[in-house]
């Protein structure tokens, strides 16, 4: 038992001696490994502080509208890419400083890279699509768009474009997440880019209505509204002869931000204007009477 204890003690002494020699023995330029580790830690902390300063300068620089009027999502995208390459450079410096031999790990890294490339094809495709979307500038943060693809229709305001996904906020307050690869192959309608939108509003009137009067009432109604664009076309015309009513269509233009306020208020205004001018909109009762007359 005494022999075993002595052997264990000698082993621990030998271990600590070799460990001390490894960390404290100066190399060919007179620097020991412990000093290299401390320098590496200090370098990482310094790199982190420098990155914080660069990020603040970057963000403040892009707050200047001229000449750096760049989309918010593009700013974030560029910053993340710069951070990636920055930390890659710091990692290379630290590995060189610590004299870590990466020759053997190079083959393993290559195999892992190939495997990850095959496994993450969709992720890589989303990243590449994100770069293309930001480069083309077809959409930007704050735009109201609709996205039609094989998975259905999504519509809302663009809140952000990240590495792999584009985020929309719907008028109902929901968040829709769309992979960038799907965005690239979808039909995207941007309602904001031209800053105006055409209003198509349909209403039916009875067949015994004075059509010219009804058209004039509707035209006066929309032309007096401050939300429509006065220099754009504004017309009212018969677009349909239905089974029970004559279909009239209002066509005018508003600024994008005024589209929904104008459209949502239009039904009540039309109803009140028709009542004031004794213009009748066919009701279900009228339809039932019409059907009974036809049966006779």
Concise account of the structure shown:
With 296 residues, the protein is an alpha+beta fold. It has 9 helices and 8 strands.
Structural summary, described in words:
The chain is α+β, with helices and mostly antiparallel strands. The chain folds into 3 domains: 13-100, no CATH class; 136-190, SH3 type barrels; 196-287, Alpha-Beta Plaits. The chain is built from 9 helices and 8 strands. The protein has helices spanning 2-24, 33-62, 72-97, 103-119, 121-136, 180-184, 211-223, 259-276, 284-295; strands spanning 144-149, 152-161, 165-169, 175-179, 187-190, 196-205, 235-241, 246-255. The strands form 2 sheets. A 5-stranded antiparallel beta sheet has the order 4-3-2-1-5. Strands 6-8-7 form a 3-stranded antiparallel beta sheet, covered by helices on one side. A hairpin with a 3-residue loop joins strand 2 (152-161) and strand 3. Helix 2 (33-62) packs antiparallel against helix 3 and helix 7 packs across helix 8 (259-276). The longest helix has 30 residues, at 33-62. It is rod-shaped. The chain starts with a helix and ends with a helix.
List keywords for this structure.
single chain; 296 residues; alpha+beta; SH3 type barrels; Alpha-Beta Plaits; 3 domains; three-stranded antiparallel beta sheet; 9 helices
| Name of the level-1 CATH class of the largest domain | Alpha Beta
Molecular shape: rod-shaped
Number of domains: 3
Report the helical percentage.
Answer: 40-55%
Report the structural category.
alpha+beta
Q: Helix and strand string, N-terminal first?
A: HHHHHEEEEHEEHEEHH
Strand order of the largest sheet: 4-3-2-1-5
* Percentage of residues in DSSP E strands: 15-25%
Runs in which pLDDT lies below 50 for 5 or more consecutive residues are: 64-68
Q: Please report the distance between the alpha carbons of the first and last residues.
A: 119 Å
The total of beta strands comes to 8
| Biggest sheet character | 5 strands, antiparallel
Give the integer mean of the pLDDT values: 77
Radius of gyration: 35 Å
In CATH terms, what is the architecture of the largest domain?
2-Layer Sandwich
SS summary, helix count? 9
Looking at CATH, which topology of the largest domain would you report?
Alpha-Beta Plaits
């Amino acid at each position: 038992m005494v022999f075993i204890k002595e052997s264990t003690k000698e082993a621990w002494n030998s271990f600590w001696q070799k460990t001390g020699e490894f960390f404290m023995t100066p190399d060919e330029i007179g620097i020991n490994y412990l000093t290299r580790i401390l320098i590496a830690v200090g370098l990482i902390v310094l790199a982190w502080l420098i990155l914080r300063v660069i990020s603040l300068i970057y963000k403040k620089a892009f707050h200047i509208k001229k000449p750096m009027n760049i989309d918010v999502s593009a700013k974030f995208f560029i910053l993340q890419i710069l951070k990636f390459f920055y930390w890659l450079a710091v990692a290379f410096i630290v590995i060189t400083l610590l004299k870590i031999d990466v020759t053997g790990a190079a083959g393993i890294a290559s195999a892992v890279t190939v495997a990850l490339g095959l496994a993450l094809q969709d992720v890589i495709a989303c990243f590449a699509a994100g770069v293309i979307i930001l480069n083309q500038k077809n959409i930007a943060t704050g735009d109201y768009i609709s996205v039609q693809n094989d998975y259905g229709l999504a519509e809302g305001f663009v809140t952000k474009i990240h590495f792999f996904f584009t985020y929309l906020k719907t008028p109902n307050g929901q968040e829709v997440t769309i992979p960038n690869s799907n965005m690239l192959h979808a039909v995207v309608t941007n309602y904001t880019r031209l800053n105006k939108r055409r209003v198509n509003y349909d209403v039916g009137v009875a067949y015994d209505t004075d059509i010219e009067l009804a058209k004039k009432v509707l035209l006066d109604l929309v032309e007096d509204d401050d939300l429509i664009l006065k220099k754009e076309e504004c017309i009212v015309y018969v677009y349909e002869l239905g089974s029970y009513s004559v279909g009239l269509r209002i066509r005018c233009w508003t600024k994008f931000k005024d589209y929904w306020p104008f459209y949502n208020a239009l039904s009540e205004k039309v109803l009140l204007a028709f009542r004031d001018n004794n213009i009748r909109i066919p009701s279900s009762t009228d339809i039932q009477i019409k059907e009974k007359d036809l049966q006779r």
